[in-house]
Write a structure and sequence with these properties.
Layout: E1 2-4, H1 7-10, H2 12-18, E2 22-26, H3 35-44, E3 47-51, H4 54-64, E4 76-79, H5 86-91, E5 96-99, H6 107-121, E6 126-130, H7 137-151, E7 161-164, E8 168-173, E9 176-181, E10 190-194, E11 200-205, E12 214-216, E13 223-227, E14 234-239, E15 243-248
Length: 253
């Protein structure tokens, strides 16, 4: 049984209490998550990576919040560096830069590959990726594809990857049985299951609209805009292929 506890990522108190080992990645999207949560996630991660233009986003976030000299510098800067400004590289001069030039892969995919040696070295439990979902549908689809490709790796170099925005958290549920803990404040919000790996047989418990051995597929049923039953603390999902889970998050830290 795979168990997921999103509250240990989306609430400051539980981030501090969880004692989990994680990596934090900043992609090239606006940073709109609340400052207090971002600071907590950044300060408590074992390795911080800014990806190409995400380095500019991070520097702007620091300057806008007067944090230039208060937070540690990124551990690594990765990407093909076609959108990372010289000013950003100069500011983070002590940070190791790993240029990943393969144009057949996205910078996000290549970043996870760079992260692989650290998974066992740092005993990482998961990776948190800061990435708003609005504006570029092509980028959103590419990021989901990266999650799926990461899921296909062996367990030795694959850990859960959580994509966190200001309004949602999204991650892949692997083949088999999973439980997702639903924070009390999120039980009135939306959730969704999407069959990104092809036609997928799914059974659920804890949702308003549950499924029982139901085939989900694009061109057929996809469980977007679902809700919780309002009673269960966990949603249970069983699937024969990896499936994308996305959920709204509480407006609190």
């Amino acid at each position: 049984m795979n168990k997921f506890f999103p509250s240990k990522i989306i609430t400051k108190k539980e981030v501090l209490e969880s004692n989990l080992n994680y990596a934090l990645i900043i992609l090239n999207r606006p940073i709109q998550i609340k400052r207090e949560l971002i600071e907590t996630l950044w300060n408590n991660s074992l390795i911080n990576i800014t990806v190409d233009g995400g380095t500019n986003r991070w520097l702007n976030f620091l300057k806008n919040n007067n944090l230039e000299n208060k937070l540690k510098h990124p551990t690594l800067i990765t990407g093909d560096l076609d959108s990372c400004h010289a000013e950003s590289l100069k500011f983070f001069t002590q940070t190791k830069v790993i240029q990943t030039v393969d144009q057949d892969e996205t910078d996000f995919t290549k970043c996870l590959r760079v992260l692989e040696p650290f998974i066992n070295e740092l005993k990482l439990d998961h990776t948190v990726v800061i990435c708003e979902n609005s504006g570029r549908l092509d980028h959103i689809i590419a990021n989901i594809n990266t999650l799926y490709k990461n899921q296909l790796k062996s367990n030795e170099i694959s850990r859960p990857v959580f994509m966190l925005s200001s309004t949602s958290i999204s991650f892949l549920l692997p083949e088999g049985k999973s439980e997702i803990h639903i924070p009390e404040c999120a039980k009135k919000l939306w959730c969704a299951l999407m069959p990104i790996a092809g036609p997928t047989t799914v059974s659920t418990e804890g949702l308003k609209w549950n499924m029982k051995n139901f085939e989900m597929k694009f061109g057929g049923l996809v469980s977007t805009s679902n809700k919780y039953d309002g009673i269960s603390d966990f949603v249970k999902v069983e699937c024969n292929l990896p499936i994308l889970w996305s959920m709204g998050i509480c407006d609190e830290i």
